[in-house]
Design a protein that fits this description.
CATH topology of the largest domain in chain B: Cytochrome Bc1 Complex, Chain C
Largest interface: A-B, 101 and 116 residues
Strand order of the largest sheet of chain C: 1-2
CATH superfamily of one domain in chain C: Cytochrome c-like domain
Largest sheet of chain B: 2 strands, antiparallel
Distance between the termini of chain B: 104 Å
Number of strands of chain B: 8
Radius of gyration of chain B: 30 Å
Number of helices of chain C: 10
CATH architecture of one domain in chain C: Orthogonal Bundle
Strand content of chain B: 5-15%
Helix content of chain C: 40-55%
Chains: A alpha+beta (378), B mainly alpha (534), C mainly alpha (276)
Largest sheet of chain C: 2 strands, antiparallel
CATH class of one domain in chain C: Mainly Alpha
Shape of chain C: elongated
Order of helices and strands of chain B: HHEHEEHHHHHHEHHHEEHHHHEE
Shape of chain B: globular
Number of strands of chain C: 2
Oligomer: heterotrimer
Strand order of the largest sheet of chain B: 1-4
Structural class of chain B: mainly alpha
């Protein structure tokens, strides 16, 4: 049965190749039929050469053996993977050595299994299949000119038939009516997501704000460790620092992510310098800090004013506080003013005091905004 | 009951006919099978990204079966004793369970994370190949834009992905992301508050990131990748110039069988490399980071490498704050410029590059032939400049690790980065430009004077000169054709064919097939020492 | 010569008995005796009533004596004879205690090789016995904290609690995996591998150089034991995910993906499309 081709569909961009291919003709080889079929897609197989002219040569046999070996190795490692997966101890135990090899063994056997499939398949393709060079015509430049004109004319006619140009009011009404549709679709998404950032004055309040007692008056917030126990001055070594949290419910959790504070016990001479600079008020915030320290103790917000990471690397001798995220450095003995790096605002200072039972309290909330800057920061 | 005889020989044909009657696939299938793809190693780089994406989909599906995207506080009670009794979010706890209490969970987690790094690395390497060879020119500008979008959307996918376990490292990154959002003038606080549902960190961000990471972005990525590949299929792949290759044809191999085999094999190779990485090298050990707490941070805190250039730009930015004195006073913090403005520029300018270059060169022709990087020195130098800029930023992102491991002062690395960022790119532009010109010159020299043979002769007047093998006939000067000029004698076929075999020759030299026109290779004659005649 | 009944009592009679002038030699001898007696009296009064004497004058224990000999040979060039310190060379050692000495000397940081951003760890100059002696000497010089006895300071510690303390206080400088980290201007927090329990304890207790001090009032000995247990057991435990790339986080992971992954895949691509 012969097949007539007009070449109108397929990838042949409309140039018909009227070659008749008789697929049942015993005189043409299968390869010639394949070549003819390829020509119908604009592909000319120019060079097709088996890699081993004599079948069964040593080289060909060797390559076949290699490919076979690759697949066998793949099977070996695949089986190894399954066996290891089931049999090897894997539950985590401190100090146990065997279980630490579970993941590496699984990964390596799985990887080798895949790699041997890859080698097998690729060596087959590279070494055993005939080499070929084929050439295909490109048909760039888009559809033939006639088709372009046809589509252009059709679209133009459709626009005419719609009659928007003849009926301007209809067009205006449609536009005006459809305009809010986009807003309708966007409204629930945006409306549901939108949240006022100034609700409860959250940008300017932290967990250290004195608590209003129900019966009137305010209670100052105690400083606590991360387990909630309050702190006495004697609990911080000279030249030491402690991360402290507000003594309110969930004060040490991420619910009050702006509240972690660094309490530092400076050496006496450093403390004198810090106190003098507090009085001078050379920080970026123009607040009166002259009584913020308690003796030799000083407290700053741990939340870096650059991008919000906890600035925790306290250098005891240089009295610099380094933030590990972007290497901003703050001079603790000079109002925590940034002396290096991308931070541009000094760390807010927490006014310290000690209550009647001898525990540290915050005399008030931070007077400056805590953490990274934003547009509305005054 | 008579059993119907099933004729195995005609079964495939019968089955094919049934399918064909319903779907009509034969003609398109013939077109696909016969499609010609050009053959060069650098055309396989995009495939690394494609196959690692498939690995991501498969391993990611596994992970979703066990992960709990919730910030609700739980107390850990799993196998990992150093965290027993610690309060953490359900997200972190389920990630720990994946790592220690799901059989094979850790290797899947590590495969997923390594595949993500390989995906982004492959995109960059592929993008560089496209850029340096000019494959983005007409008609492929849309594919270039889609590719750039794939990078940035992949960036977001990776960021949301590694923030899901809510560990200390990614939580710190999330904190910085909220600071970046906050810094945007006018809308910053509203955007941050809306995304986090209140103050940082809120209690819903992981759930929101989860749906973005698992559904929304993968859908967009799949759609974009499909369009990207369809365009390559439709427009046909570009090719290098060379013998028989023109702007209106494609010379290579047909899709089936060789191209398919290469693709299948390479897929297995990519999957295999990712699996070996997952087994041999540990990645993202969240159990050592601990759960995210606002007061806890580790030294050596960096984001994944494809985000690290932004970390670098943030570290290098000087502390220039803009205060606007109207009303209560407004502020544009210094973090705005390196993390919002810079990536905005880096995203949009490269996307426009094909059109900018076409306009500058006044070139609106269709280009299907690639250009050797040396032949377009301005573009190559510009690309190298961009790479150096990116590298300085990435290295600066890790400057505390570099400072610690190489005993350099941390402050010095910051200053080095600031100065290097401004000086090194122009320097490398100039150096690359000169190198390109030099290579071009050498090509033309060889075309004009021939290949150096290594044979030195002495002229009668005492002058030494090297014999050159001309490339054309009759010492005619050849034109440069945009392809590799042979510069060594063995590339001209002047040597005999190579022996096959690894440890010992498989075939004796006399039996090896020779190319036509080449005299048969004979055994090397025995050499005798020159005997003295005493 | 003597008058019979002069008026006067005992004193007069004593005086009158003295009326005979002595010889010159006897006069000299007498004044010498008076002088010596006065000096002895003054010295005795001073010895009895002198204010608190410096420690040097108090008897040192035998270990401290050995330590003093070593100290006087190696340490006084920067820390001065009584450990008061020399401006620009070495700080005062009064009050640093045995813990500080144990840390600095047993890790080889002291004696300092050269003045730089910070003291570097190097092979120790003094062995364990000598280190203990110097530590004893400095302890007796000015007091200060000391590491508890014993080489095992981690058994029985709660690694979970230790991990929480470590992450809150230590990981910011020493990194989550104990790999160390950079501080400003060339200083750094060292790696925590290859350390002994005593060195870790001594570091926390004494706050060497720029490390903050974590005295026993701030981190109780139980908490210190927990931290040491975390460092020595958990951080030193093998990683379950393969080679840990230095525990430096995404920096080395990114390097590995290019150096190992992409390189391997590019070589594979070269092989696939090669003409061989």
């Amino acid at each position: 049965m012969s097949v007539q081709t007009t070449g109108s569909n397929g990838n042949d961009h409309g140039s018909p190749v009227p070659e008749e291919i008789d697929y049942d003709d015993p005189r043409t080889t299968r390869f010639e039929k394949v070549k003819a079929a390829a020509r119908q897609d604009g592909v000319e197989i120019v060079h097709y050469e088996p890699q081993y002219p004599e079948k069964g040569s040593r080289l060909e046999r060797r390559m076949s053996r290699t490919v076979g070996l690759m697949f066998l190795l793949c099977g070996l490692f695949g089986t190894a993977f399954v066996v290891l997966y089931i049999v090897w101890p894997w539950r985590w135990k401190q100090g146990d050595v065997l279980m630490k090899y579970y993941t590496p063994l699984l990964g390596v056997t799985l990887g080798l299994m895949c790699l041997f499939i890859a080698f097998g398949v690729l060596i087959w393709g590279k070494k055993l299949l005939p080499r070929e060079v084929s050439i295909q015509d490109r048909h760039d430049g888009g559809s033939p000119k006639g088709d372009r004109r046809a589509v252009g004319q059709t679209l133009a006619y459709m626009v005419e038939e719609l009659g928007v140009k003849r009926r301007p009011l209809l067009g205006l009404a449609a536009a005006a009516g459809l305009a809010p549709v986009a807003v309708v679709i966007a409204a629930p998404v945006i409306g549901g997501l939108i949240k006022n950032p100034h609700a409860d004055n959250q940008l300017f309040t932290t967990g250290w704000a004195p608590i209003n007692e129900p019966g009137g008056g305010t209670r100052l917030v105690r400083m606590t460790r991360d387990d909630g126990t309050p702190i006495r001055p004697a609990d911080v070594s000279v030249g030491g620092q402690m991360t402290v949290f507000p003594g309110i419910p969930e004060g040490a959790t991420n619910a009050h992510a702006d509240s972690p504070t660094l309490l530092i016990h400076l050496r006496s001479d450093d403390a004198a310098v810090a106190r003098a600079n507090n009085v001078k008020g050379t920080g970026h915030d123009k607040f009166d800090r002259s009584d913020f320290m308690y003796g030799d103790y000083i407290a700053f917000s741990k939340i870096c004013t650059h991008a919000g990471c906890p600035a925790s690397l306290y250098e005891q001798q240089t009295n610099r506080l380094l933030c590990p995220c972007h290497q901003s450095q703050f001079q603790i003995t000079n109002n925590a003013i940034p002396v290096f790096g991308p931070a541009s605002r000094s760390l807010p200072q927490l006014p310290l005091d000690v209550d009647d039972e001898g525990y540290f309290v915050a005399r008030s909330d931070y007077l400056a905004t805590v953490g990274p800057d934003f547009w509305e920061r005054p | 009951m008579k059993r119907r005889k099933i004729d195995l020989k005609t079964l495939p044909a019968k089955a094919g006919d049934e399918v064909e009657d319903r779907l009509g696939v034969a003609t398109p299938l013939r077109g696909i099978i016969n499609k010609v793809f050009p053959d060069h190693w650098s055309f396989l780089l995009g495939e690394i990204a494609l196959f690692s994406f498939i690995v991501l989909l498969l391993t990611g599906t596994f992970l979703t079966l066990f992960f709990e995207p919730s910030l609700k506080e739980v107390v850990y009670d799993g196998s990992y004793t150093p965290l027993r009794g610690v309060h953490m979010s359900a997200a972190y706890s389920s990630s720990l369970d994946l790592s220690f209490d799901v059989r094979g969970g850790l290797v899947m987690r590590q495969m997923h994370h390594w595949a993500a790094l390989v995906f982004m690395a492959a995109i960059i390497v592929h993008m560089l190949r496209i850029f340096f060879t000019g494959a983005f020119r007409k008609p492929r500008e849309i594919n270039w834009i889609i590719g750039s979008l794939l990078f940035w959307i992949g960036f977001l996918e990776g960021f949301t992905g590694y923030s899901l376990p809510d560990d200390a490292l990614s939580g710190t990154g999330l904190r910085i992301a909220s600071a970046i959002l906050l810094s945007i003038p006018l809308i910053g606080t509203w955007a941050t508050s809306s995304i986090f549902n209140g103050e940082f960190p809120g209690d819903i961000i992981v759930s929101r990131f989860y749906i973005v990471h698992v559904l929304l972005i993968p859908a967009i990525l799949l759609a974009l990748i499909t369009v990207h590949l369809a365009l390559v299929f439709k427009q046909k792949h570009t090719q290098w110039p060379g013998p028989g290759r023109t702007n209106t044809n494609v010379v290579g191999e047909r899709f089936f069988p060789r191209y398919t085999i290469k693709q299948a094999g390479f897929f297995m190779a990519v999957a295999g490399v990712i699996a070996v990485l997952a087994g041999a090298l540990q990645i993202n050990p969240i159990w050592l980071f601990g759960p995210y707490e606002a007061g806890v941070v580790s030294a050596a805190s960096q984001p994944d490498w494809y985000v690290m250039f932004l970390d670098g730009s943030t570290r290098l930015m000087p502390a220039w704050q803009i205060n606007i004195g109207i009303g209560n006073g407004y502020v544009i913090p210094p973090i705005f410029w390196p993390t919002v403005v810079l990536p905005g520029l880096l995203a949009t300018l490269p996307m426009m590059y094909p059109f900018i270059e076409a306009r500058l060169n006044r070139d609106n022709k269709i280009h299907n032939l690639l250009q050797r990087p040396r032949d377009v020195p301005q573009r190559t130098a510009l690309g190298v400049m961009a790479v150096v800029f990116f590298l300085v930023l990435v290295l600066s992102g890790g400057n505390d690790v570099i400072a610690d491991k190489f005993n350099i002062s941390l402050n010095a690395t910051t200053w080095g980065g600031r100065i290097g960022l401004l000086i090194l790119p122009p320097l490398f532009y100039w150096v690359t430009f000169r190198i390109c010109l030099g290579l071009q010159q050498h090509d033309r020299e060889v075309l004009a004077h021939g290949v150096e043979t290594g044979i030195i002769r002495r002229a009668p007047d005492g002058r030494f000169y090297e014999v050159h093998q001309p490339l054309g006939h009759d010492h005619a000067e050849l034109d440069y054709a945009g392809w590799v000029v042979p510069k060594k004698m063995n590339r001209l076929g002047a040597l005999g064919p190579s022996l096959k075999g690894f440890f010992r020759p498989l075939e004796r030299p006399a039996e090896a097939p020779v190319s036509p026109g080449h005299p048969p290779v004979e055994g090397v004659p025995e050499r005798r020492e020159i005997e003295s005649k005493h | 010569m003597t008058s019979p009944h002069r008026s006067g009592g005992l004193l007069t009679r004593m005086r009158s008995r003295r009326a005979v002038p002595r010889s010159r030699a006897r006069r000299r001898a007498a004044s010498a005796v008076r002088l010596i007696a006065a000096l002895v009296l003054a010295g005795g009064l001073y010895t009895a009533f002198a204010p608190a004497i410096s420690a040097q004058d108090a008897p040192l224990s035998p270990a401290a004596m050995e330590g003093k000999a070593l100290f006087d040979n190696s340490c006084i060039s920067c820390h001065a004879m009584n450990g008061q310190g020399i401006e620009g060379r070495g700080p005062s050692l009064i009050g640093v205690g045995a813990a500080s000495v144990e840390f600095q000397v047993s890790t080889g940081r002291m004696p300092l090789g050269s003045q730089g951003a910070q003291a570097l760890e190097k092979p120790p100059v003094f062995d364990e016995e000598q280190t203990r002696q110097i530590a004893q000497y400095v302890q007796e010089l000015g007091g200060g904290p000391a590491v508890p006895e014993g080489d095992d300071l981690h058994s029985g510690g709660d690694v979970a609690a230790g991990g929480q303390i470590f992450r809150l206080n230590c990981s910011s400088c020493h990194a989550f995996g104990g790999g160390g980290g950079a501080l400003s201007s060339g200083k750094f927090a060292p790696r925590l591998s290859d350390t002994t329990d005593r060195v870790i304890w001594a570091a926390m207790l004494s706050g060497p150089q720029n490390m903050p001090v974590f005295g026993d009032n701030q981190l109780t000995p139980e908490q210190k034991r927990d931290v040491v247990a975390y460092v020595q057991e958990t951080l030193k435990d093998r990683d379950p995910g393969g080679f840990n790339l230095g525990r430096l986080g995404p920096t080395t992971e990114g390097l590995a993906v290019f150096v190992v992954g992409i390189t391997a895949l590019i070589f594979t691509a070269l092989w696939i499309a090669g003409k061989s």
